[in-house]
Q: What sequence folds into this?
């Protein structure tokens, strides 16, 4: 007959807690080490196993020192930046300190020493993290140039406030040659743009530019004819009357979106626009074919 597990004190039963705090409250060692409790970090126990970065960050709080804050990829996730999927789901935390403090060590922590910069630390989701600009600069050490541009575009996405000001600050920060990977950071800064709505729009934009094609307008309004208003299109070659539309899964699975798309494309075609619809496969698996389609359409224009 199995023995009943003793309950934890009420304010420990809601999430993660330090073993030291539990001992101070009179919780025995056997209860602390019971296999029903998870061990996300040394000296920490949790009721539930963390399944995403945000939950893991909250699991780290019981042992987080006052001088520590989240940085790099972890901070980028907290800021909602567009990242490669494997980075976005990485359950190792980037935890930083300002020099000369000692960087943290744990089996699920990557410790960092960072140069102190103005307004370096902010609070997101109740967690101390490096600010968005500094986080983007830190990503230069772990992302290639294309993914760094995509992450940068996410900070300047359509609908975000003061994007032009932030863009200028990002370009200025990237010009600092003392920053790690400053050359990669500088190249990426020159390629980030305001106004994208998704990482795939940015990937498509970079694909056409890297192929030597002119740079298109981003999410620009295109007239639909007298009295019909206008439509927003992902990428626009206005002089050639060519439009590029990235078709994500929501265009296929959302019935209302699908019907709106059909109506929009028919009206654009009636107005003399050539609409090229692009999927993820066109960008990743068939980039040469996609560029050939776009190049041919531009030549006809």
A:
């Amino acid at each position: 007959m199995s023995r009943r597990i003793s309950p934890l004190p009420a304010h420990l039963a809601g999430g993660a807690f330090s073993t030291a705090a539990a001992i101070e409250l009179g919780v025995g060692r056997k209860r602390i080490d019971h296999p029903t409790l998870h061990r996300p970090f040394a000296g920490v126990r949790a009721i539930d196993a963390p399944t995403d970065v945000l939950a893991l960050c909250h699991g780290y709080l019981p042992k987080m020192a006052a001088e520590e804050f989240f940085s790099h990829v972890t901070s980028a996730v907290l800021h909602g930046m567009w990242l490669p999927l494997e980075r976005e789901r990485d359950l190792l935390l980037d935890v930083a300190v300002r020099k000369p403090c000692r960087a943290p060590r744990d089996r699920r922590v990557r410790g960092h020493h960072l140069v102190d910069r103005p307004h370096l630390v902010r609070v997101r989701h109740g967690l101390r993290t490096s600010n968005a600009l500094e986080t983007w600069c830190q990503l230069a050490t772990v992302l290639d140039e294309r993914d760094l541009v995509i992450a940068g575009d996410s900070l300047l996405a359509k609908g975000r406030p003061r994007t032009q000001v932030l863009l200028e600050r990002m370009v200025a920060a990237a010009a600092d040659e003392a920053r790690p990977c400053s050359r990669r950071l500088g190249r990426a800064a020159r390629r980030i743009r305001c106004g994208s709505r998704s990482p795939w729009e940015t990937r498509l934009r970079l694909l056409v530019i890297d192929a030597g094609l002119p740079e298109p307008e981003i999410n620009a309004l295109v007239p639909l004819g007298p009295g019909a208003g206008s439509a927003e299109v992902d990428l626009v070659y206005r002089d050639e009357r060519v439009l590029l539309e990235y078709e994500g899964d929501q265009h296929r699975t959302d019935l209302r979106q699908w019907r709106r798309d059909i109506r929009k494309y028919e009206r654009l075609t009636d107005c003399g626009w050539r609409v090229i619809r692009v999927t993820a496969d066109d960008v990743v698996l068939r980039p040469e074919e996609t560029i050939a389609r776009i190049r041919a359409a531009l030549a006809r224009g």
User: Anything to note?
Assistant: The longest strand covers residues 230-237.
